[in-house]
Amino acid sequence: MDLTLPVTLIPSNQVLDLAAKTGVLLLAGLLAYVLTRTLLVRAAHAFARHTRGGFDDMLMEAGVFSRAALLAPAPVLFWGLEIFAGLKGVLDNAIYAYIAVSVVMILTKVLDALSQLYQTFDVSNRRPIKGYVQLVKLFIYILGAISVVAVLLGQSPWGLISGIGAMTAVLMLVFRDTILSLVASIQISANDLLHTGDWIEMPAMGADGSVVDIALNTVKIQNWDMTITAIPTYKFMDTPFKNWESMAQSGGRRVKRAIMIDQSSIRFADDALKERLKKVQHLAPYIEQRQKEIDEANARSDADPASPLNGRRMTNIGLFRRYALEYLRSHPKIRQDMTLLVRQLQPQADDGLPLEIYCFTNETAWALHEDIKSDIMDHLLAALPEFHLRAYQRNALVDARDRD
């Protein structure tokens, strides 16, 4: 007895005819998109040039008109379904799904333009709406996804939503971490927080290294000791972390180091010290100009030169601070277009007077940066005795002759 079920095969000529018609229709839709996009964008540019308002420019920058051209193929495709017999049942639902996706993409770009317009108002600094815009986008994405699935399945979206609602509790319980990671992935991508190859630091998770893989559930980080730390993706939304990539892209890496000055070595600069320091190229112009200003100020105030406490005087630490600043300004490895400071900090108990060096090197690679930073600190520490200054060392014995 033959139990083989009969199989209905579509003749090969009908398959080729169906494929050819579909190809022609898709090509016509692509041509409609390209022409519409070109004409629409050019017309929008021309209109924006003749208007004073800035919102049309924001629509252009957000790409709303380019996205609007995505709707152009839909009428062409529907028109083609009426011409080519046999395609209506095949592509009808697919076109509706395409329209739903296009509308979602257009709406998100319109929201970007509206958000940019809101930022032009002063109230945006006090009441930012970026989080609300992202929430609305998420809602639009969810509705769009439900609409596409419902159209492709030939069902009502409301019936699909009610079915999803009944399973929400079970899904949240079973796939809690996955759902949290999915939402976190969307937030990370939307805010441009993390990329493969970025150097990140997350002390709470013991991670300090380069991102080697970003998956749905985990982000793998290769630490500088060559170990691997796997962090759940959703942790990046509730755990503080530092991304150093913007530092690398800026071309400058910060130096923030303090030299602890023994406060007992701070004194007024006498004539002998000033004369000797005038031989220093970085200091000579400053000392002459500064001395002239001080002499004029003391003359106006009729200061008695019998005591250095009368009137204004230069100090050895002030001269050293100026020397350090000029040294950094002339250093070829220091960025002059970024913050550059040499400043005193609040002294701590038994720690001396901190003189902080704050600048940026033009090398961001770790080894090169550390080498430049060490060279600078070596030089400044070695220069201290030239100013009759000493670096502070707790519990260190200092020769009494050094205090004279």
Overview of this protein structure:
Its main location: membrane. InterPro entries: LSM_dom_sf (IPR010920), MscS_beta-dom_sf (IPR023408), MscS_channel_2nd (IPR006685), YbdG (IPR030192). Residues 177-245 form the Mechanosensitive ion channel MscS domain. This protein is of the alpha+beta class and 404 residues long. It has 3 domains: 12-174, no CATH class; 195-246, SH3 type barrels (Roll), CATH 2.30.30.60; 250-403, Alpha-Beta Plaits (2-Layer Sandwich). The protein contains 15 helices and 8 strands. The protein has a 5-stranded antiparallel β-sheet with strand order 4-3-2-1-5. Strand 1 and strand 2 form a beta hairpin. Helix 4 (73-83) packs antiparallel against helix 5 (88-118) and helix 5 packs antiparallel against helix 7 (130-153). The longest helix has 38 residues, at 12-49. The radius of gyration is 35 Å and the shape is elongated. The N and C termini lie far apart (120 Å). The model is unreliable at 1-10 (pLDDT under 50).
- Cα end-to-end separation: 120 Å
Low-pLDDT residue spans: 1-10
Overall shape: it is elongated
Mean pLDDT: 81
Structural class designation: alpha+beta
> Main sheet?
5 strands, antiparallel
Report strand order across the widest sheet: 4-3-2-1-5
Secondary-structure map with pairings?
Elements: H1 12-49, H2 55-62, H3 64-68, H4 73-83, H5 88-118, H6 123-126, H7 130-153, H8 157-174, H9 176-191, E1 199-202, E2 207-214, E3 218-223, E4 228-232, H10 235-238, E5 242-243, H11 245-250, E6 253-261, H12 271-277, H13 284-301, H14 316-329, E7 341-344, E8 353-361, H15 366-383
GO molecular function: mechanosensitive monoatomic ion channel activity
Keywords: Membrane, Transmembrane, Transmembrane helix
Organism: Pseudodesulfovibrio indicus
